């Protein structure tokens, strides 16, 4: 796998690092953070890593790692005004950043939507409103024209599962709504928005690699019993296949046939033809797996693998499931080249004498890079890998309590410190053949 053609990078997202909330519109995560009890440490994204202020130093940091690429996201509320016109100051921030990345030979991988929906659009129904899909396509149109040829790759969405299921179905992410039909309807509109925006990208930016980023939590059955095997399959359809199957097969998985009428999303004629636009790449985000058993009420329920190793956020460490996932997707769909757009671990880091010796995270990366390599050896077309994350940042409902960075951030001083995992990544990249 260590051929020079393989792209290695680090990833971040706008709301999680930027700060400078005063120079953009409010988004759904500002509102969610301001709602008591939603974010564990009661924090918000107002300062975060102060990346808008410190971006030049952050690019130095990225360059010092020797990566080929940097995956970032654009804050929709920073680049458009309420009337949909471009906010030139916000756009200029990204243009300067993109120019600097290009000047240093670091390929910009740009995600258009990493969860920070402008609040005024949410006030009009957000992703439950079909109109939002068209507003997204308009945003994609304007921003791609403004960026010109500065971008190497565009992803329409990051993890529509999280936006729809976590945000609109169980309410643990912004906007915090909780109803099954909301989850399914928002998912449909996010996928529709993806398809509409892909058409825009193909027109405005035919020379970039254009695609989407999906997250997968492979589902295993607790036992070999037929009931548990079926439960795992249903969970997989609901949490994973729901977001990829429409892209290739123009339909939702068969579990939709189990739905009560009131849970069914409204799907208009022709929607699947819009959704199933050809993509140049598929981005895969992977962190962990889940194990299910049959449940008489819900069909499937997740069980805790109590005895297995876990990261600081409680996610089981099971690298084999990463290989299994990649191999299974390859078997199920006619996939374009894939990038691992996120992989990483939250660990309980300690800054001691100016050092963070995160051997646990380093071992996670080692095992998961091996898992990717094993998939490549089995014929899966994986062309790049991005560590999540460049630096510690705002971890959504966990606030600043969970650290995913390969670089440590002291939020009081904004000092960045490379962890052992960052040095190891740097060595890996420096010693490529
Ligand atoms: C994700 C998000 C990241 C998270 C990471 C760890 O795509 O889920 O891209 O924003 O920080 O996954 O939870």
From TrEMBL:
The active site is at 342 (nucleophile). Keywords: Carbohydrate metabolism, Cellulose degradation, Glycosidase, Hydrolase, Polysaccharide degradation. Its EC number is 3.2.1.21. Signal peptide: none annotated. Coiled coil: none annotated. It is an enzyme of class 3 (hydrolase). It comes from the Bacteria. It catalyses: Hydrolysis of terminal, non-reducing beta-D-glucosyl residues with release of beta-D-glucose. PROSITE patterns: GLYCOSYL_HYDROL_F1_1 (PS00572), GLYCOSYL_HYDROL_F1_2 (PS00653). Gene3D superfamilies: Glycosidases. PANTHER family: GLYCOSYL HYDROLASE, LP05116P. Belongs to the glycosyl hydrolase 1 family. NCBIfam families: BGL. This is Beta-glucosidase. It comes from Shewanella litoralis.
């Amino acid at each position: 796998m260590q051929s020079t053609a393989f792209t290695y990078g680090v990833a971040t997202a706008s709301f999680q690092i930027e700060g400078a909330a005063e120079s953009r519109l409010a988004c759904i995560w500002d509102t969610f953070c301001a709602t008591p009890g939603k974010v564990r440490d009661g924090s918000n994204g107002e300062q975060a890593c102060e990346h808008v202020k410190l971006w030049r130093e952050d690019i130095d940091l990225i360059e010092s790692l020797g990566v080929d690429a940097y995956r970032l996201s654009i804050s929709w509320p920073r680049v458009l005004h309420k009337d949909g016109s471009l906010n030139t100051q916000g756009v200029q921030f990204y243009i300067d950043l993109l120019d600097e990345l290009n000047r240093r030979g670091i390929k910009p991988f740009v995600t258009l939507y990493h969860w920070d929906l402008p609040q005024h659009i949410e006030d009009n129904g957000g992703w439950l409103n079909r109109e939002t899909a068209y507003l997204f396509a308009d945003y994609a149109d304007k921003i791609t024209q403004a960026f010109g040829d500065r971008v190497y790759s565009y992803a329409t969405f990051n993890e529509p599962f999280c936006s729809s299921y976590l945000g609109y179905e169980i309410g643990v992410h912004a906007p915090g709504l909780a109803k099954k039909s909301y989850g399914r309807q928002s998912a449909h509109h996010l996928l529709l928005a993806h398809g509409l925006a892909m058409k825009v990208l193909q027109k405005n930016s035919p020379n970039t690699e254009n695609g989407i980023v999906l997250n997968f939590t492979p589902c295993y059955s607790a036992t070999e019993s037929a009931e548990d095997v079926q439960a795992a399959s249903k969970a997989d359809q609901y949490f994973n296949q729901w977001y990829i199957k429409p892209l290739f097969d123009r339909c939702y998985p068969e579990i939709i046939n189990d739905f009560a009428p009131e849970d069914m999303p409204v799907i208009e004629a022709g929607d699947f033809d819009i959704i199933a636009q050809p993509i140049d790449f598929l981005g895969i985000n992977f962190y962990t797996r889940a194990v299910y058993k049959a449940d008489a009420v819900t069909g499937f329920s997740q069980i805790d693998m109590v005895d297995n190793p876990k990261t600081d956020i409680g996610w089981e460490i099971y690298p084999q499931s990463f290989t299994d996932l990649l191999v299974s997707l390859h078997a199920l769909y006619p996939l374009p080249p894939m990038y691992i757009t996120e992989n990483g671990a939250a660990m309980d880091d300690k800054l001691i004498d100016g050092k963070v010796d995160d051997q646990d995270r380093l071992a996670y990366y080692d095992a998961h890079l091996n898992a990717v390599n094993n998939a490549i050896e089995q014929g899966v077309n994986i062309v790049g890998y991005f560590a999540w994350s460049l630096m510690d940042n705002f971890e959504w409902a966990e606030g600043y309590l969970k650290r995913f960075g390969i670089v440590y951030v002291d939020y009081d001083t904004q000092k960045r410190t490379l962890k052992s995992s960052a040095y190891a990544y740097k060595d890996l990249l420096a010693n490529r053949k």
